[in-house]
Design a protein that fits this description.
The chain is α/β, with parallel strands linked by helices. The chain has one domain: P-loop containing nucleotide triphosphate hydrolases (Rossmann fold). The chain has six helices and ten strands. The radius of gyration is 17 Å and the shape is globular. The chain starts with a strand and ends with a strand. Bound molecules: adenosine-5'-triphosphate (ATP) and magnesium ion.
Length: about 210
């Protein structure tokens, strides 16, 4: 169980706090879906949870144990809103092998197939893929790590319906093993899954 208690985050460069007294509990079995207006702090929230940003007050625990930022980076896998900004590998194969040096070609293909990427030339750079393919590659990279907590920032944005449905089906399969939290402008896409829905509003999560 991932638990956020009264999280307060006010970066010195921001006029107002972005998160204030934010509480959340998320567990396997039920996907947490967070919507919110542009600029409401959704990306900031997943960055804080995943340990990429700190916070000034509150506590983040995993099964009642408080976690520091390094432990959260280890626990969580974050699929960024714009994953293309963060690719490090010179090829698709290299991107998949980051942190998995011995990954075989069969294992690479199997990871890509899970996210609906087939018949790719693995020697091509990740940047040669379309926006939707890049998002799916970023998901495949995180799936290889099998993080206990999977955070996805706008995973369905800009994807066509068949790819979107493929990703939703994949998340439905993963949800019993991994704690999944999704930030999205399209919460209705997930309505057939078992979800807990919230709106991020003025720095707090409001159950819907
Ligand atoms: N380090 C920072 N310093 C100053 N302002 C920040 C910082 N990080 C985030 N912000 C501001 O906090 C607000 C929330 O940003 P964030 O990117 O989390 O919103 P979002 O809900 O993900 O928006 P979108 O739906 O457009 O992706 C914005 O006004 C942003 O400019
Ligand atoms: Mg965002």
């Amino acid at each position: 169980m991932l638990s956020l208690k009264n999280i307060y985050y006010h970066p010195s460069t921001a006029e107002k706090p972005i998160l204030r007294d934010l509480c959340l509990k998320s567990n396997t079995g039920k996907i947490t879906i967070i919507r919110g207006a542009s600029g409401s702090g959704k990306t900031t929230l997943v960055e804080v949870i995943s340990g990429l940003s700190g916070y000034q007050k509150g506590e983040i625990t995993w099964f009642n144990k408080t976690l520091n930022a390094r432990q959260r980076r280890w626990l969580c896998g974050l699929v960024f809103q714009f994953p293309e900004r963060y690719f490090l590998g010179l090829s698709i194969a290299q991107e998949l092998r980051l942190g998995h040096k011995r990954l075989t070609t069969d294992e690479q293909i199997s990871a890509l197939t899970k996210v609906g990427l087939i018949n790719l030339d693995l020697k091509k750079p990740p940047e040669s893929l379309s926006g939707g393919q890049q998002r799916r590659l970023a998901i495949a990279v995180q799936l290889l790590r099998s993080p206990k907590v999977l955070l996805l920032d706008e995973p369905t944005a800009g994807l066509d319906w068949s790819v979107r449905n493929g990703i939703i089906e994949l998340l439905a399969k993963l949800k019993d093993k991994q704690t999944i939290l999704i930030v999205t402008h399209e919460p209705e896409l997930f309505r057939n899954l078992n979800t807990a829905n919230y709106e991020l509003n003025h720095g707090q999560l409001i159950p819907e």
